[in-house]
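Per-record layout

source: Barrientosiimonas humi
name: Tight adherence protein C
length: 313
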Amino acid sequence: MSLEALTWSWPGAVLGAVVGVGLLLVLRGIPAGRRPDLADRVGPYVSDKPRPSRLLQPTADLSVHRLLRPVLGRLGALVDHLLGGATSVRRRLERAGQPTDVEGFRAQQALWGVLAGLGGIVFATTRVLRSGTSIPVAVLLILLSVMAGVVARDQKLTRDARRREERILAEFPSVAEMLALAITAGEGAAAALERVTKLSRGELSGELGRCLADARAGASLPEALQGLADRTGIPSLARFVDGIVVAVERGTPLADVMRAQAQDARDAGKQLLLEEGGRREIAMMVPVVFLVLPVTILFAVFPGLSVLQLGGP
């Protein structure tokens, strides 16, 4: 078959794929195929509020979502089996402030891999048709695209966790100052935390609100604060929490402890600024050394070379 015949067959292939997907969605939407599972049958009897009618839900939830959810679940389980590291993923999800749903994250990784694989299929097919690339090389490109999509989602989670930690560290000195002022004014630890959560907004304020919710649910305040330190994993915040926990458990004056912790938070913020300034200073040396300095040397040496060439035999 010639190259022109293959090129003209693409519209038919795309049309056939669209028709096939449409028929599959129609078959999936038939009432006989929408049999409720055990959770759907038992849910209305154990839920606190009445469940809305399925006819009022969006159409996408009845077709595309229900069609892709089992497939993505199986692909996510396969990714989890191949990669492992569920504990690390759960830890990073907590640090990023996202729900600790490892299965859902694996499904997202599978979706990213599928989308990247589709892009790899298009690229590999184009290379095969235009440049005559061999089939094994094309298959390798597709596999690398799938792997790149899976790894990209994992790297995005790591970046989200790091950026959230940076926001918490930026908010930490101000929140520590507010806590110290509230406790110095005569309020208790729980009342000071509640006042700070009402007056501030941000990631750290949300974590403090979660601590108060845990304390109201039955946990002690030291346990709730220790949960905050475990979720964030920031050393300076962990030291701050340890100081509060020790003061609450031993009955030492909390105001002095909070003032000392606030001073430590300010010092930690200054240290972070100095470290960031040092990194930026090193980054600024790159264009100076590799761009400005060579051009300066070139301008200094080029006139002498021109004179030597003119004065030669």
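summary: The domain at 166-271 is CATH 1.20.81 (Receptor-associated Protein). Residues 1-6, 55-64 have pLDDT under 50 and may be disordered.
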